[in-house]
Amino acid sequence: MRINEQSILIVDDVPKNIQLLGSILKEEAYELEFATSGKEALEWLDSRPFDLVLLDIMMPEMDGFEVCRRIKENPATREVSVIFLTAKADFQSIIQGFETGAVDYITKPYNRKELLVRVKTHLTLQQQRKQLELTSAFEKKIFSIIGHDLRSPMGNIRTYIDAFLQVNDDLDENVVTLLKDLYLLSDNAFNLLENLLNWAKSQSGVVVCRPQEEDISQLIRNVLMLFSLQAENKKITLSYDGPDELNGFFDPELISVVIRNLVSNALKFTPRGGEINIRAQHALENETERLVVQVADTGIGMSEETLNNLMNKNFHFTTYGTDNEKGSGLGYQLCEEFVRINQGSIHIESTPGLGSTFVVSLPVGKPVDQK
Q: What is the CATH class of 7-110?
């Protein structure tokens, strides 16, 4: 079989019908094989792959419906496209054919143009399906590499540098500066990998949300600690304004990703010497108590056009920060998705030159539809 040649198995118990189909299809340079019974057809399919089966319905011993049913029951052949060949054009036979797994039918006597168009259409669809499968497998492999072979080493590098800085007080100032820069570079790379993985999960619908009664204040403090070195590097003040304990009903892992992205974004767009404040409280929204978290910065703010681009899911939007920091452009999309599946909402208040505030609203108790 030549490269990219598409293969067709013709199944008919009448040799003249096979000869007629073969004479029509050979003009298109398809690779053709033939079977004169259902048993022989199944043997062919067990021995090698085919892209398409043209299958006669009315055959002795094993009719086309039974052959198609067996093809679709076999994991090794279930993806093969089957077109029924039939002199019967009654509605019931057509329905039965589709119910057994056929993708189309062609009635006898054959119209040459119709036959070629239908065969070509389904071979094209089959080729596209195979290409999608290859693309999907490649994407899974890439994200597996990101998740295991890249993410873990980058996280370890960041942790080791931080630990080294914590236990060595007598380092030369230039060495400390270099290590802090290395920490920030590794931290940015780690966060980018994290966002890519989370985005891939959200796009494939495999994100699992496990909401529970959780203290948002402790989560916020953990996030602020995580970004303390980055804030120190830009001389930005990070602060939390809220009670020592403030409970809500959310998935702590997903909401931690949200808060981390919002703080990271605020650090990116806040000039040196600025401030970032996280406020958390219970508040009434439409007469319902909610947990409201606000991440406010004194950054460069956003125009209406920038806000629209940021919230456009069909537009990949990213800009450089005040110290030329580069982001993934995925952060806000992740925040919006992760907040949504936690039965929450998010909106932005921003004024160019004055700063931005990202407001996240989450349930305080278990939502009614989850009880």
A: alpha beta
Closest to 196 (Cα-Cα) out of 251, 250, 264, 142: 142
Residues of the chain with pLDDT under 70: 1-4, 88-90, 135-152, 155, 184, 188, 191-192, 194-206, 313-320, 323-330, 368-371
C-alpha distances out from residue 295 to 37, 110, 258, 302, 356, Å: 71, 69, 11, 15, 8
SS3 for 236? coil
Q: What are the distances in angstroms from CA 25 to CA 50, 141, 268?
A: 15, 38, 62
Q: What is the pTM of this model?
A: 0.54
Q: Are 230 and 188 in contact (CB under 8 A)?
A: no
Q: Which fold has domain 207-370?
A: Heat Shock Protein 90 (3.30.565)
